[in-house]
Amino acid sequence: MFVRGNDASVELYVVGADGKGLRRLTRNHVEDATPAWSPDGRLIAFTSNRARTGPFSLMVIPAEGGVASRVGVRGGEPAWSPDGKRIAFARAVPGCRWRRRTST
Questions:
Q1: I need a labelling partner for 13 at 20 to 30 A (CA). Which of 2, 23, 37, 90 fits?
Q2: Looking at the whole model, is its pTM more than 0.85?
């Protein structure tokens, strides 16, 4: 699985382990990115700016292709739970600043 595109459109693709069977999963001329396979391999979670305004939404699409469903807003970097029932994701909170702390 990989993403490919340009400034106007980034889409999701899947290909077999042997390099054959390239399939384009999304075709919406926006940025679809940060894909993550479900543990059973049937679904792919990803982020998308389909609204074209505001933050990215968390989406899920069947790995074989089909219609993507929005499952959350303001999400990024999805990661499936081991049982495939939940998706964790990063979320920016307005006004919150993260700083790396180092010990000396």
A1: 90
A2: no
Distance CA 104, CA 95 (A): 28
Question: Can you tell me which residue has the tokens 């929005």?
Answer: 70
Strand partners, 2: 13
Three-state SS at 66: coil
Reading the block at residue 27, the tokens are 């075709």
- Locate 17 and state its tokens: 């382990």
Q: Which residues of the chain register pLDDT less than 50?
A: 101, 103-104
Residues forming beta bridges with residue 70, ordered by sequence position: 59
Three-class SS state of 91: coil
Contact 73, 58 (CB under 8 A): yes
What are the residues whose beta carbons fall under 8 Å from the beta carbon of 34, sequence distance 6 or more? Answer: 46, 47, 76, 77, 78
